Amino acid sequence: MSDKNDELRRLKRIRDQQLRARDPSVKQKKLQRTIATKRRKSVRKVSFLEILREVSHKIKGTLVGGVLGLLIFLILPYFVKTSWIDFVGIGAIFFLTILGFFIGQALDTRDSLKELINK
Hints:
By secondary structure, the chain is mostly helical.
């Protein structure tokens, strides 16, 4: 009886191995693992400075002008106590944002002219 049980266990083990060998989910998992490994190797990490270098000067100038205008808007009321100072702060935001945009446009134009000259 023991030999028969051993033989049944052996056959069951062989059958399970054959089923595992033909199991499509195992092949799919292996394929997904390979794809994920290749993708991880191909994607490189990007730093904040690299992103800043890629952004055009127009956008950077506009943002810097807006932030400076916002700082003026927030700090100026502590130094000048009048009712119209909020309008001056809002005007500073708009003026410095537009000024930053134009300075950024000039820098972008300078860079594009340098590229044309160096070609």
